[in-house]
Amino acid sequence: MIAQYWDRNTLLLDLTALAGEGEVTLAPSPVHGWPIRLEFRVQPGAIARLEVQASARVVFEVPAQGAPLVFKLAPDAYGPHSAHITVRWSAADGSAH
Asked: What is the pTM of this model?
């Protein structure tokens, strides 16, 4: 389960409990659609790469050490016509699977 937090019109998905490799598919709310802004909190050292695929593919490189950090997804990376958003994470350098 991924913890979710709202801050006004921004949905923060807390991925700090995740490690290794994995994937999750997000779907918009049937009533409200996608939030205006999406953010992802990650724990450096637990994963090395975060890939988000919707209208565009965005890859975030995660440092090997440090405090949790937040990656902000640009609003043009997804939109009202995005049926879903796929989030992949990987512990190794290279493309997340």
From this structure: 0.89
